Amino acid sequence: MTFAQWLLFCGVSLLMCFTPGPAVLLAVSNSVDVGARRTAFSSLGSAIGIFTVSGLAMLGMGAVLSVSAHAFLALKIAGAIYLVWLGVKRWRSPDPLISRQAGAATGQRRERKNWQLVLQGLGVSLTNPKAILFFSALFPQFIVPDAPLFTQYLVLTTTFAVLALVSHAFYVALMALVNDYVASRSRLFNRLVGGTFIGLGLALLQTRHKVG
Questions:
Q1: In the chain, where are the structural domains located?
Q2: Half-sphere exposure of 161 toward its Cβ, with a 13 Å CA cutoff?
Q3: pTM recorded for the entire structure
């Protein structure tokens, strides 16, 4: 892969990463719940999920999903249920969203353990079949057949994961700037984020499986 090809891959990945999806939405939601710093743990889980999904794609899992309607359907339903569950949980949350300064003075942000945040981010990444199909479709365009496959996997996946983390940091920082505004409208924000999660889950169920 040439440097020009890598730059092209970065451009496509940036577009993908900065388009708000489940992982970005989770980062925004957690930035309010547990604070910007601890949101890094859920983003770390998302990054681990990216490496896992990318690895599965490189090993041919993407081809399996493209052929097997049952495998695609099972993963799609699992991802949809998880997103809907996150949405319902957020929608029904009675907790007022507090400012960063106020959150530091309460125990609210320490209710969830760091490992739970990691697993949350990991779950969002692993249950999204679109990610596997995305990597399966994208990677072949930049893979050099004669070059070591594992090295190319590391370069491409690390690049994508870093850009994903950058997008999370961007949205979390943006959230911090408008945190006071959001705090005064906690019920609206809870339902907006919760409804978006639910919408993403339902949209995932509408993903059509194409064979051949």
A1: 3-205
A2: 22
A3: 0.70
Query: Which of the given ranges, 21-30, 116-125, 147-156, 167-176, has the highest pLDDT on average?
Result: 116-125
Angle between helices 114-126 and 39-58 (to 10 degrees): 40
Over residues 126-137, the mean pLDDT reads: 75
131 vs 137: CA distance, rounded Å: 10
Alpha-carbon distance of 199 to 193, in angstroms, equals 10
CB contact set of 47 (below 8 Å; sequence gap of 6+): 121, 161, 164, 165
| Amino acid at site 170 | F
Question: Rounded CA gap, 59 and 122, in Å?
Answer: 19
Query: Which residues make Cβ contacts (< 8 Å) with residue 43, sequence separation at least 6?
Result: 23, 27, 121, 164, 165, 168, 169
Q: Taking 60 as the threshold, does the pLDDT of residue 109 lie above it?
A: no
Cα distance between residue 191 and residue 94, in whole Å: 11
Number of Cβ atoms within 10 Å of the Cβ of 143: 15
Model pLDDT for residues 195-204, shown as the tens digit of each residue:
887 887 787 6
Residue 110 CA to residue 34 CA, distance in Å, equals 7
Give backbone dihedrals phi and psi of 38, rounded to 5 degrees, phi first. -75, -15
114 CB contacts (<8 Å, ≥6 apart)?
Answer: 38, 41
**Rg, the chain, Cα only:** 18
- The CA distance from 95 to 78, in Å, is 27
